């Protein structure tokens, strides 16, 4: 054991039910529909891309929760498979939301402020409720049910500063068999007293949670620094120590989201060259670092992110809503920085990764660039999985992957139906879907081959 084990205060969950619906035959499930996923990263401008794998009317074969193959729709699998017909629907790998706040469902769509004011006015008061075990448990359940109802089967999540909020989130994810990366939020200054921890207590809580949940099933721990302004240098140092000593641990934080926030970070860490440098000096920038936003960066920062193998979790809905700025996706790409997509609820106004992709298109359009449906969809599936080092498990329909699969209506309503019916190419069709669809298009969400949401 890595650390001395302290009090396991709360009950561990019952394990996720076995990797099959009760009626599955021998754990064998076959799903029929239009299969779309990626085999590599599409180029920026490519509307016809070899990276896109489209297999209309095919059976996706799933055994014991894993994808084992695929065959044409006309060639039905034999009676040893339970067959589910989703003919005429779009099957995608479950979405990955690389940055989202579970307690902020309660403040989504709050009117009239920019980041720092929004945190104080709406967010911090809402997060205080999660000190309570029942609130933490109910909040975790509500949040994961909502993720699944939006077609998101994997996520990197910020609960609150309270250990119990992370503990309950892990437990809820375990009972659904979901891939979840989370950890208690670290914040020991510039926050209300009720939301502050201290370095020794926070370190103990992190270690307890790591011992209890890290790399258990589909769960992983993320050292979760809220952002540099709300952690003392001593706390950042402690966080860096955890990152360098716990194998496989992730690190998530916010970076250069708004200009006011950058100015605040600069004033608190005058010795650092840039906001990113604050994290780099503390040992927080490495291949499993997930840095949200990264709008106000320079070329040196991007080079550092590339060299470290860290990723930016781009959150366009949040950036538009809070007026934070327009992320330069192309500059990140050209610099070789991995970019994933994220809802950032409650700064973002929807858990839907489809709406997030559509907002991603709008942000690039404001800067005179055209984001393809392929770039957006890749960043919400395989691209995100690769940035997390989880491409063998999630993000595609590759054989051996866990069967996190969502079934989508191509069109809901007469306008979308008409638009889709006149689309001339696959990209045109998928782009129109991305701009017009939302969670109401979701029919079923399977997690490891088990239907966890049905409309
Ligand atoms: N920066 C620090 N905390 C937060 C948060 O909760 N949401 C967003 N969007 N930015 C932050
Ligand atoms: Zn955030």
Q: Mind explaining what this structure looks like?
A:
The chain is an alpha/beta fold and 455 residues long. It has 15 helices and 16 strands. The chain has helices at 115-128, 133-149, 163-176, 199-213, 233-245, 259-268, 275-281, 299-308, 316-321, 329-335, 353-366, 373-379, 382-387, 414-421, 426-436, and strands spanning 28-38, 52-63, 66-72, 82-93, 95-101, 152-158, 179-182, 185-186, 219-225, 250-255, 289-293, 311-314, 338-341, 405-408, 442-447, 450-454. Strands 5, 6, 7, 8, 9, 10, 11, 12 and 13 form a nine-stranded parallel β-sheet that branches. β6 (152-158), α3 and β7 form a beta-alpha-beta unit. α2 (133-149) packs across α3 (163-176). The longest helix has 17 residues, at 133-149. It is globular, with a radius of gyration of 21 Å. The model is unreliable at 1-9 (pLDDT under 50). The site of zinc ion (ZN) has 6 residues, from β5.
Topology of this structure?
Blueprint: E1 28-38, E2 52-63, E3 66-72, E4 82-93, E5 95-101, H1 115-128, H2 133-149, E6 152-158, H3 163-176, E7 179-182, E8 185-186, H4 199-213, E9 219-225, H5 233-245, E10 250-255, H6 259-268, H7 275-281, E11 289-293, H8 299-308, E12 311-314, H9 316-321, H10 329-335, E13 338-341, H11 353-366, H12 373-379, H13 382-387, E14 405-408, H14 414-421, H15 426-436, E15 442-447, E16 450-454
Parallel strand pairs: 1-4, 5-6, 6-7, 7-9, 8-9, 9-10, 10-11, 11-12, 12-13
Antiparallel strand pairs: 1-2, 2-3, 4-14, 14-15, 15-16
The structure holds guanine and zinc ion.
Guanine binds next to helix 1.
């Amino acid at each position: 054991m890595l650390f001395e084990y302290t009090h396991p205060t709360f009950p561990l969950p019952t394990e996720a039910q076995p990797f099959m619906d009760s009626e599955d035959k021998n754990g064998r499930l076959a799903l029929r529909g239009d299969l779309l996923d990626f085999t590599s990263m599409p180029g920026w401008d490519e509307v016809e891309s070899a990276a896109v794998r489209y297999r209309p009317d095919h059976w996706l074969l799933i055994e014991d929760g894993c994808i084992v193959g695929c065959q044409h729709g006309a060639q039905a699998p034999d009676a040893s498979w339970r067959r589910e017909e989703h003919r005429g629907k779009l099957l995608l790998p479950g979405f990955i939301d690389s940055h989202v706040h579970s307690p902020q469902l309660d403040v989504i769509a709050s009117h009239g402020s920019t980041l720092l004011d929004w945190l104080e006015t709406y967010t911090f008061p809402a997060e205080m409720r999660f000190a309570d075990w029942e609130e933490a448990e109910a909040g975790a359940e509500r949040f994961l049910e909502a993720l699944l109802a939006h077609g998101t089967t994997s996520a990197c999540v910020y609960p609150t500063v309270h250990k119990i909020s992370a503990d309950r989130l892990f437990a809820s994810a375990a009972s659904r068999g979901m891939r979840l990366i989370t950890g208690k939020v670290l914040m020991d200054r510039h926050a209300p007293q009720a939301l502050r921890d201290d370095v020794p207590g926070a370190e103990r809580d992190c270690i307890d949670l790591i011992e209890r949940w890290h790399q258990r099933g589909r769960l992983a721990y993320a050292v979760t620094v809220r952002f540099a302004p709300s952690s003392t240098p001593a706390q950042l140092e402690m966080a860096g120590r955890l990152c360098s000593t716990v194998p496989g641990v992730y690190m998530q934080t916010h970076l250069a989201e708004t200009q006011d926030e950058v100015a605040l970070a600069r004033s608190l860490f005058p010795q650092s060259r840039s906001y990113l440098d604050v994290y780099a000096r503390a040992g927080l920038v490495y291949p499993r670092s997930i840095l949200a936003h990264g709008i106000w960066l320079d070329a040196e920062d991007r080079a550092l992110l590339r060299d470290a193998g860290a990723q930016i979790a781009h959150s366009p809905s949040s950036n538009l809503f809070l007026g934070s700025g327009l992320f330069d996706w192309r500059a990140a790409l050209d610099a070789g920085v991995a970019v994933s997509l994220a809802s950032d609820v409650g700064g973002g106004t929807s858990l839907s990764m489809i709406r997030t992709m559509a907002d991603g298109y709008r942000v690039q359009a404001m800067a005179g660039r055209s984001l393809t449906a392929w770039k957006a969809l890749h960043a919400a599936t395989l691209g995100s999985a690769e940035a997390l080092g989880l491409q063998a498990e999630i993000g595609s329909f590759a054989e051996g992957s866990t069967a996190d699969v969502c079934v989508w209506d191509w069109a809901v309503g007469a306008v979308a139906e008409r638009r889709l019916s006149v689309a001339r190419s696959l990209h045109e069709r998928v782009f129109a879907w991305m701009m017009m669809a939302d969670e109401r298009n979701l029919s079923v969400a399977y997690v490891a081959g088990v239907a966890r949401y049905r409309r």
